[in-house]
Amino acid sequence: MANDTSVSVFLFMGFSHLSRYQALVFLGFLLIYLITLIGNILICVLIWRNANLHTPMYFFLSNLSLLDICYSTATIPQLLHNLIMDQKGISFQGCMAQLFFLISCTGAECILLAVMSYDRYVAICIPLRYPIIMSRNACVQLAACPWVIGILNSVLHTVLTCLLSFCGSNIIQHFFCDVPQLLRIACVDTSMNNTVLHVVTVFVGISPFVFILISYIKIISSIMKIRSVEGRWKSFSTCGSHLTVVLLYYGTVNFNYNRPAYGYSVHIDTLASVLFCMVTPMLNPLLYSLRNKEVAAALKRAMHRRHAF
Question: Fewer CB within 10 A of the end CB, N or C, for the chain?
């Protein structure tokens, strides 16, 4: 796959305005990355080792945790490396690799969050049919779909980006390689790339979000029909955390990929990217799982077993 570029290295300028606080920024992002890794690995291990957590909801949660590990690893290590180096750059090949993994994770998480909302819809709105609808084979297929769609989506964008020419500036006003930023510095017509970006975002980003909203309208309607306050709270507690992260994640992702190319400051772009690339993967274990009574009980049992030795 040849491209007509004369640029071999891209330079990141995402946090150049914070150069005086480089050490603090480095420590902050290192802490975020460590919390993300520890939290998500812990969730995967707890779900894998506890038979009572081998249910569709926790199966999807383990996929989300694995996806968040890949997500954060696609961006944060390179950022940490650049923060301690004088030359804050990445090779063209490294940029395309980062782009591929980032878009794969972004698309996969969008679809996976929709799959998780469907699981909650079936569990709350049609509970008697839940074991049949969410069978083991169905769960495996539903979990595989986000990964496949994410990879196919990423292949499309990565190939189109590789075919662009970068014969002028090699400065990216961001802290990682992403499609919108690369299109801004390309020295050829990028109208087709922008069109593909917006069209694909409608299907991968906006459509799943609309599906989630419709699911939650039906879920909330069903919850309100429950007579006991305790029953309502128990049903809503399994959905509230999911809805919170959905709003944060989809809001920042769609802002990043489905808006006009110009008219927003670099700092706003960077903030939106920090939210969906770093903050959301870090918060997912806390909001989705560690607040859950079954996961908390599994964690306590694991800690007791460790102290027993």
Answer: C
Q: Which of 83-87, 219-223, 284-288 has the highest mean pLDDT?
A: 219-223
The one-letter code for the residue type at 275 is L
Please tell me the number of Cα atoms within 13 Å of 234 on its side-chain side.
10
Token pair 């960077």 is found at 270
Long-range contacts of 86-92 (CB under 8 A, 24+ apart): 87/11, 88/11, 88/12, 88/13, 88/16, 89/9, 89/10, 89/11, 89/12, 89/170, 90/9, 90/10, 90/12, 90/177, 91/8, 91/9, 91/10, 92/5, 92/7, 92/8, 92/9, 92/10, 92/166
Going by pLDDT thresholds of 50, 70 and 90, the confidence category of residue 16 is: confident
* Other C-beta atoms lying within 10 Å of the C-beta of residue 217: 11
Residue 25 and residue 83 in contact, taking contact as beta carbons nearer than 8 Å: yes
Flag whether pLDDT at 247 surpasses 70.
yes
Query: Whole-angstrom Cα distance, residue 193 to residue 199?
Result: 10
Q: Which long-range contacts (CB under 8 A, 24 or more apart) does 15-23 make?
A: 15/83, 15/175, 15/270, 16/88, 17/267, 22/83, 22/84
The CATH architecture that domain 9-308 belongs to is: Up-down Bundle (1.20)
The two three-digit tokens of residue 304, written as one number: 């007791």
Which amino acid type is present at position 280?
T
Q: Distance between CA atoms of 208 and 242, rounded to whole angstroms?
A: 14
User: Can you say how many angstroms the Cα of residue 266 is from the centroid of all Cα atoms in its chain?
Assistant: 21
pLDDT for position 30: 95
User: What is the C-alpha to C-alpha distance for residues 206 and 213, in angstroms, rounded to an integer?
Assistant: 11
Q: What is this structure's pTM?
A: 0.88
DSSP 8-state code for residue 84? T
Checking if the pLDDT of 71 tops 90, the result is no
